[in-house]
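Narrative summary of target 7.
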Amino acid sequence: MGFYRRYPRSREIGLKRLLPLLLFSLFVVVGVLVLIRTSALSSPRAYDYNVHDGLSSEIEDQLLDVVKKPKIPFQNELSLSLEKKNHLPPRNLDLFPTLKEGHVSIVLYVHNRPQYLRAVVDSLSKVEGIAETLLLVSHDGYFKEMNSIIEGIRFCQVKQIFAPYSPHLFPDSFPGTSSGDCKDKQDALIDNCTGNPDQYGNHRSPRIVSLKHHWWWMMNTVWNGLVETRRHQGHILFIEEDHYIFPNAYRNIQILTELKQSKCPDCYAANLAPSDVKAKGEGWESLVAEKIGNVGYTFNRTVWRKIHAKAFEFCSFDDYNWDITMWAAVYPSWGSHVYTLRGPRRSAAHFGKCGLHQGQEEDRSCIDNGKLDINVEDADKHPNIKNEWGLHVFEQQGGYQAGFRGWGGWGDKRDQQLCMSFASMFHVVDSSHEARSLKHKAMRQPTSEMSS
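Modeled conformation, tokenized:
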């Protein structure tokens, strides 16, 4: 009888011991399910065309110290339709079914200057090695003629993406112009309108702010959102619709990215042209390290993490130009010289006379005499950078830098908030200690990883 009385008690104790383990297991399962659902909701899935898209070992790309979910504007029908196009696979897969291992992807970001775009596409068609890589074209809004030009490309894989929150898509609401928005130098309290003026007292212009919004949305989408590039561990080359690309550009950028770690371990990027857009290069038999330029620049994911970690500095700086914002607010915050590596001759050229969304009409000549006047010499048709060259460093250069206040145009809090939302739209909301540690690690990556 004594044994019989002890048995139920032993069983009861066993169950009590198992109960915490069962509860913990249930908690873990529920947590994993919630995390997966959160990731699915916060990260739009791209079209699956037999590309493996499992969990990345670079999990820090999916963790961001963010407390609030992104505040994205309500999308209209056009915005939604363009966002669906962003998930389509690249075209020309029948002609170029694979990409060469170690390729440098190319991102061409465009506005609405068809004259310019035709010239750039023509130059790209003559680039040696272009068939080996992916050309990704990012549109600031939707313009039929611009779209038609890109759809005619047959010399490589090409994928189009459209900024779904471009002000050009919202004619009567933010991020376009709302009926109650303040204009020019109106006073929000006196004139009962909505908006925050910039440091010079001027209110936002959707046509102006679209430049910075597009660049930042594009960067976040390319590095963290697209199935074609969000696991890409190599370099990505960025060019614009007014950058004429020389035939040797792709081979030269491949050489520069390979030489960066050994020749210039402190270089964050590689450029196809000098930072002075009017310069053609020194013509020396030497590599050059200088400030990062905005013509044909390339960097890797490690550098992108450093840029992304400075989202607040980028989004709060009162200048509508993305490049000036980088020079005056982001790069100085890294605490050291920010160099890029380039050759002594340019492999890309800035051209044209029109700026900011001009050049849509055929009778409006944004190219001198209606023709492109860029002299491509024999030396520009083949790789012209030598492995044995030394390095010349320009330590002191002029231009925009820390201390510059900015040209304004970016004072509206709605623009700043949308900008910050772009920074978190592809990330899991996670304020845990692990996420903070990973973010801290990303900000302190050694320069060797930036060069490799």
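Residues 141 and 166 are 5 Å apart (CA to CA).
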